Amino acid sequence: ARVAPLAAALESGRLRLVPSGTGSPGIDLRFVGDELNRAAAGARWLLLEGQGRAIETNWATRFRCPVLRAAAVKDPLVAGRIGVAPGAALLRGE
Sheet of 89-93: strands edge to edge? Predict the structure, then answer.
């Protein structure tokens, strides 16, 4: 049976899903959990998924490694702030 690429990456440890440790949809980088801090310190790239994490709380943040931001932009105020239409899908690599 063929294994999906993401499933294979998770199984091999090349891809990890790490909780933020904050208990909220956004990530205030000053208050993330120890597990996320340890994982991010050695990361080759980061994926910020969702409007709260990818846009609202970290839009202007610059990271030391490449970042992929993926979100459905649901809120009209957030959409206006970044210059897209409400309902737009955002996929931005940095």
Answer: 46-49, 67-72, 89-93
| pLDDT tens digits along 21-74 | 877 778 887 888 888 888 888 888 888 999 988 999 888 888 889 999 999 999
Alpha carbon of 58 to those of 74, 88, 91: distances in Å?
Answer: 16, 18, 14
> Is 0.85 topped by the overall pTM?
no
Give the chain's length: 94
- In this structure, whether the domain defined by 5-93 belongs to CATH 3.40.50.10880 is answered with yes
Q: Report how far residue 93's alpha carbon sits from residue 21's, in angstroms, rounded to the nearest whole number.
A: 24
From residue 12, give the alpha-carbon distance in Å to each of 5, 9, 73, 77.
Answer: 11, 5, 32, 40
User: Shortest CA distance to 35 belongs to which of 53, 17, 47?
Assistant: 17
Three-class SS state of 26: coil
